[in-house]
Amino acid sequence: MTCPVCGSREVGKVGAKNYYCHDCCVEFALHPKGMMVYEVNADGTLIALNGVG
Ligand SMILES: [Zn+2]
Questions:
Q1: pLDDT for 1 beyond 70
Q2: DSSP 3-state of 44
Q3: Which residues are close to ligand 1, an ion, with C-beta < 5 A?
Q4: Gap between the Cα atoms of 36 and 17, Å rounded
Q5: Quick one: which of 8, 11, 34, 38 could link to 27 by a disulfide (CB 3.0–4.6 Å)?
Q6: Considering all CA atoms of the chain, what is the largest pairwise distance in Å, rounded to the nearest integer?
Q7: Which residues, including other chains, have CB under 8 Å from residue 41's CB and lie 6 or more apart?
């Protein structure tokens, strides 16, 4: 698994289908319709950025 935003391999699994990139600090998830990318807010909530692919 590599980060869909920056291509880094510094990616950790944080849920069943969720991953976190330690390089650009985004969380992403695999969905049937494509990859969803989230920015992690300071309070821990997720902000959907854009679907990739
Ligand atoms: Zn990244």
A1: yes
A2: coil
A3: 3, 5-6, 8, 21, 23-24
A4: 11
A5: 38
A6: 28
A7: 47
**Span from the CA of 11 to the centroid of ligand 1 (angstroms):** 8
Give the burial string for 14-50 (b: 16+ CB within 10 Å, else e).
eeeeebbbeeeebbbbeeeeeebbbeeeeeeeeeeee
Check whether 53 has a pLDDT greater than 60. no
Cα 28 to ligand 1 centre (Å): 9
> Which tens digit of pLDDT belongs to each residue from 7-50?
999 999 999 989 999 999 999 998 888 888 999 888 989 898 87
